[in-house]
Write a structure and sequence with these properties.
Blueprint lengths: L5 H6 L7 E5 L4 E2 L5 E2 L4 E5 H4 L3 H4 L43 E3 L7 E2 L5 E2 L5 E3 L6
Antiparallel strand pairs: 1-4, 2-3, 5-8, 6-7
């Protein structure tokens, strides 16, 4: 049943963490041509990447769960290196396919933090994991 909720799948594909950082283990050259020194710390904005015209096209600022849906209503696989909110490769988020349901009556209030979180937490129920 949950596999049929493709619009919901598209809606939750927006990044929950606004910033991420990495550290270069050795010197390297980025695709942009910029040089990165060994042990350099890089900070990138997942929030901004989720709203870049160069990545998502002319409607980049719109909330569009349809980005992850084909014309026939199937889920489109977006390469994890283009959409990095759930990490990529061997470090992909284990929880990205977990189905959770908010506990009824729990008041949800956003909290101020570098991570977009709930002020009083988010009480949820977990159900059996399913793959989209």
């Amino acid at each position: 049943m949950i596999r049929k909720l493709v619009y919901l799948h598209g809606a939750i594909c927006f990044p929950p963490i606004p910033f991420e950082h990495i550290c270069a283990m050795k010197s390297d050259i980025l695709p942009s041509g910029d040089h990165v020194s060994q042990n350099a710390k890089l900070i990138y904005s997942l929030y901004a990447m989720g709203r870049m015209k160069q990545i998502w096209g002319h409607n980049f600022m719109e909330f569009m769960p349809e980005r992850w849906l084909s014309e026939s209503g199937k889920i489109i696989h977006v390469p994890s290196y283009k959409f990095i909110a759930f990490n990529a490769g061997p470090r992909s988020c284990l929880g990205k396919d977990i189905h959770i349901q908010a506990v009824e009556g729990h008041h949800v209030t956003p909290g101020l933090s570098i991570i977009l979180r709930m002020k009083h937490g988010l009480k949820v129920k977990f159900t059996k994991r399913c793959i989209w």
